[in-house]
Design a protein that fits this description.
Helix 3 runs parallel beside helix 9 (234-244). This protein is an alpha/beta fold. The N and C termini lie far apart (79 Å). Strands 4-3-2-1-5-6-7 form a seven-stranded parallel sheet, with helices on both faces. It is 35% helix and 11% strand. The chain contains nine helices and seven strands, in the order H-H-E-H-E-H-E-E-H-E-H-E-H-H-E-H.
């Protein structure tokens, strides 16, 4: 007598499949890391374009400085400077919102910058970074212009690529990292835009970094010291920015006007590019 063939297995039961970009297991996987990186470029680009932010003045500085602390005057002066910059930016004509105060989005000097811009009634940007034990977005960032990053390098891209100026207040490792990133880009001429750089608090910066020693040892040129200016009060800082930044839109290193895009993304230069000062002999890769 023939045996009966085995019964076929029952059909699989389970949830219907979802498209890959809505599958959290895939999106959070190592394989999808390029998508997550790209999203930290595209999402801010879309928001800045919608809000008509053309270019920024970036404030760097310690998250640990507060108005009532040992270096509290820097919090108060960052707030004052951001307020005055914003008043000035609101008088500028042209395509999009220009000279917008931008910070790392967290507490301390970052909060002071966003707070000062808000005091003046202007827009202000915060590029926050998710950290394990600190740094939440401060409440003074304009709605729609508060961004949360996972990748430091994507956050630094946005600091650099639409900045027309940088003001570095006293800070620690994070401030030094961000400041030297911009200095390297300027020294090597990697970005086709001059970024005005102010080091706020000359006593602090000259104690923390011996720039003259770098020149003396031959690791930078003396002309590299012209990449930044020391300032010690909000009025002097504002005058320096107004003197360094033309009232018209950003310009390329060659002097030609930048494209009327919003945001005004600086081009990255290659070794074959010409038509501008290369900013010195750099020993870094420029980012």
């Amino acid at each position: 007598m023939k045996k009966k063939p085995p019964s076929p297995p029952p059909p699989f039961e389970g949830a219907d499949p979802v498209v890959a970009y809505r599958n959290p297991d895939f999106v959070d996987s190592d394989d999808a890391r390029p998508l997550r990186i790209l999203s930290e470029y595209l999402a801010p680009l879309r928001a800045l374009r919608e809000q008509q932010v053309r270019d920024t003045i970036v404030f760097f500085g310690s998250a640990r400085i507060h108005s009532d602390g040992p270096l509290g005057r820097y919090y108060d002066e960052a707030r004052t400077l951001a307020r005055e910059i914003t008043k000035w930016s609101m008088t500028l004509e042209g395509h999009g919102h220009r000279r917008i105060v931008c910070s790392g989005g967290g507490p301390g000097i970052m909060e002071a910058a966003n707070r000062g811009a808000r005091d003046a009634g202007g827009r202000t940007v915060g590029f926050n970074i998710g950290l394990p034990h600190e740094q939440k977005p401060n409440p003074y960032i304009t709605p729609g212009l508060s961004f949360e990053f996972h990748y430091f390098f994507m956050r630094k891209l946005w600091f650099a690529q639409i900045a027309c100026a940088l003001v570095a207040f006293p800070g620690g490792f994070g401030t030094l990292d961000e400041m030297f990133e911009i200095l390297t880009l300027q020294q090597t001429g990697k970005l086709d835009r001059r970024i005005a750089m102010l080091l706020y608090g000359s006593d602090y910066w000259k104690e923390v970094i011996d720039f003259e020693a770098l020149v003396r040892h031959g690791t930078i040129d003396r002309r590299d010291l012209d990449l930044f200016t020391f300032v010690d009060d909000p009025a002097a800082a504002l005058r320096a920015l107004q003197g360094a930044l033309p009232p018209e839109a950003p310009r390329k290193l060659s002097g030609a006007p930048a494209a009327a895009a919003t945001p005004a993304f600086a081009s990255s230069r290659s070794p074959d590019d010409d038509g501008g000062d290369d900013g010195g002999d750099g020993d870094g890769d420029g980012g």
